[in-house]
Amino acid sequence: MLNPNFRSLYTSALTPPPGMVFDEAIATTFSMDPALLLEVPVYLALMAADGQTDPDPLSVLEAIRRYSKRITVYVQKGRIQVPQIAKPNPLFGFLEEMVVEVRAPGGGVFHPKVWVIRFVTPDGHSLIYRLVILTRNMTTDKSWDLSLQLEGTIGGRKAKLNKPLAYFFKSLPGLTTGEIERERLDQVNRFSDEIHRVQWELPEGFDELAFYLPGTKKFEWEPPVANRMAVISPFCSDEALQALIKQTKAADALISRPESLSGLKKDTIELFSQCLHLDEAAETEDGEEDNSTDQPLATGLHAKAYLFEKGWNTEIVVGSANATNAALMSEKNCEILVSLAGRRSKVGGIDELLGDDGMGEYLVTFDATKEAEIDTERQQAEELIEKARSVMSEAELSLKCGNALKENLWALTLIGQIPSLDGIVSATAWPITVTRDFAVNISEGVTDGVKLGEFSASSVTGLIAFELKTSHPEVSARFVLNFPVVGIPAERNSAILQTVISNQDGFIRYLLLLLGDGSGAGPLDSGTGSGVARWLSRLAAGEDIPLLEEMTRTYSRHPERLAEISRLVRELSQGSKNAIIPENFLNLWSVFESAIGGHDA
Predict the structure, then answer these.
(1) Which CATH class is domain 376-490?
(2) Which CATH number fits domain 10-201: 3.30.870, 3.40.50, 3.30.70, 3.40.109?
């Protein structure tokens, strides 16, 4: 239990169980890196291909288009990170519909870090739900974190213990800051209903499970009465810690960050037998840089866990909630916690956690005699930047897209009143589909809109990056907001497609992906590329009958793939002279559509 030698990659949560395939998923997070989200559908496509293909641009495009309708991420508004890109990436535009911005109902923050994933058998007759409770956000942060993974099948009756989970997912649409698509609403309602009936398989050694939603009436967490307690929390408040201690006879350990421990009162520190933090050397394993592995080394503490020993039993509570007033003592934040209990002889306890086989070798005692160095100017600047982020997030802004002065370009305008941003000396904005070189100043008080610039159709997006700077040279913030767009070009998706499918060879390769079985290889492809070359040569020679037969076979077995081809042809035809679609294919496709009645498969 909580053994730091057992490492888990974020992607492991998405790996299907044996004999199953990914169906759909809902995720919640406080902050999110769009670049990481872009990797999720690509990873799923690679898993479907048994990792046998490399993620070239075309397979990335197909993966995003294939999975974007089935993955929804709910994120705290104002906490989408600005992706670090060296060159423009129009594929970010496909993330708009996957990302839903939300706010906590109590005025705090939306803080739960959860994945719930639906896996099905290829025939669709059986399904498994996987629930992943994390302490980390959907970012590339390298902090020490925890994760709990549960799997279960749907039973005939609703399980009482799942009621908080069902309520949590059911409540997500009510937290959104904008309109939510009907498909996303149906998805969250379906998940809520099915999760209520899931029978979870508990980790080895544990025999009790419970879910809690701190800050939500009826589902709040109350610390159990215990003999011993240990707390792991990167952020702490005096009142919250003192409330936890009231329920236990002995507060054995508080593990936090040095700066958090420095901010606690002396009386609070003295309530714990030990106050510990990560040794600086632990953040680079043995204190030296390790270049022998591609895996990033953990730096800093971000895990949250509460351990209680009660008689012969150990209870561990993990999730998103820090030991702070906002998380545990108010109804402001939206949080989630999971409790597991089992015999200490089977799952271990606090001594094992603090021992050499647990976190012990990575921890050092906090030196309470050292006075914390408080940079008041920096603190004030950080308060100003967070207030400005909140003000921008709450502003009623939208985007308008219209014809630009230059041909084939589109003008993006930020509509609405830019709010006053106290303490901010510079504020700029730009679409995340282009680099920061396109950033423009946004002035407060402008009522007729801020012109963000003129862009190609493929770069038009509602995901707008903001950079706010204070007078303090080290305090600034970058974040993304997802705005509704009025007048978005009809050919935008076509333009994005054409940036990736740039020639006839690319079109044929992409067509192979659509006709394939999701494994990354098309029906005429041997996996070496020879299939593509052979098909191209046959098309050039006018041999279109084998392709027609392949499409007919696909129609009888997987008609939905032909609907994708029809959609692809339509989209690539918008704003284009079909230069990248071979004429032989268009002739063949018209014959095929006529043969099936002239409508989509």
Answers:
(1) mainly beta
(2) 3.30.870
| Per-residue model confidence as pLDDT tens digits over 488-532 | 998 888 888 888 787 777 776 777 667 664 444 444 333 333 344
The reply to whether domains 10-201 and 212-365 share a CATH topology is yes
Confirm if 255 and 303 have CB atoms less than 8 A apart.
no
The candidate with the shortest Cα–Cα distance to 551, out of 587, 588, 526, is 588
What CA–CA distance (Å, rounded) separates 302 from 219? 24
Cα dihedral: 228, 233, 238, 244 (round 10): -30
**Sequential DSSP letters for 95-107:** GTTTEEEE--TTS
Contact 77, 193 (CB under 8 A): no
Residue 507, both tokens: 């079109």
SS3 state at 90: helix
Tokens of 488: 């978005």
The CATH class for the domain spanning 212-365 reads alpha beta
Domain ranges in the chain? 10-201, 212-365, 376-490, 501-595
CA-based nearest residue to 548, from 500, 585, 498, 580 = 585
Burial of 202 per CB tally in 10 Å (0-12, 13-18, 19+) = middle
User: What's the predicted TM-score (pTM) here?
Assistant: 0.86
